[in-house]
Design a protein that fits this description.
Length: 229
């Protein structure tokens, strides 16, 4: 699954040109921006289905750009950057990006990452599709009928989302539910990893889109009806 429209924000002209051609051949309408301010000034800045973001940009830096996007759109965001280090990964994911790829990277890998994230962030085909959390069996029941065995941490997280009724749940609330504490002024990689494992558990079991998304500066949201049974 690929998005219909995509904004590519990167000041490497050669890389952007060839990646744009590659993605356009797959039917994606790509708009290029070599400056983050140029994207933000565009009339349709927050209307794209997907964003590919570099971190070292003229204007607003990549991390701040991701935070701005997350306040205005739930579209997929993938970072493709030459910056390395666990602190960079932490900063990017905490800001709200869905995935982080390190340059140099093959265009096919970028395309696969876009498709993987798009499957996750795309809205369910039916707003009435109900997910169910069976507390007796410890299973998640997908709208297509698939039953997925959950870990205790998975179950605790999903209980939080069910009680939130489609509203975002803060990182602090999720950590409290898991019996963990968030050190003041620090991000918690453990929560991000737990959420990632839950997503992957669901994706491996069913082709149904997973409506679990990050919300910058807040936490996470389950964008589909989720009932406790």
């Amino acid at each position: 699954m690929q998005p219909k429209s995509l904004a590519l924000i990167d000041d490497d002209a050669d890389y952007s040109e060839f990646l744009t051609q590659f993605l356009q051949e797959q039917g994606i309408a790509v708009s290029r921006f070599d400056d983050s301010n140029a994207l933000l000034a565009a009339p349709d800045a927050f209307s794209f289905d997907f964003y590919l973001v570099d971190l070292m940009l003229p204007g607003v830096n990549g991390v701040e750009l991701i935070k701005i996007l997350r306040r205005r759109t739930d579209a997929g965001v993938v970072v493709v950057s030459g910056r390395l280090g666990p602190e960079v990964f932490r900063e990017v994911i905490t800001a709200g990006a869905d995935m982080y790829l390190v340059k140099p990277v093959q265009f096919e890998q970028v395309s696969l990452a876009i498709a993987a994230v798009q499957r996750r962030v795309a809205k369910p085909s039916s707003a009435d599709a109900v997910w169910k959390l069976d507390r007796a069996s410890g299973e998640l029941v997908v709208p297509d009928g698939t039953r997925i065995q959950l870990s205790e941490a998975d179950r605790q997280l999903l209980e939080c989302f069910a009680q939130a009724g489609g509203e975002p749940v803060t990182r602090e609330a999720l950590l409290n539910k898991l019996g963990r504490e968030l050190p003041e002024g620090e991000a918690d990689d453990g929560l991000s990893a737990t959420i990632y494992r839950l997503r992957r558990r669901i994706e491996r079991a069913t082709p149904t889109l997973v409506p679990l998304q990050s919300k910058s500066r807040v936490g996470y949201v389950f964008r589909a009806p989720l009932q406790l049974i």
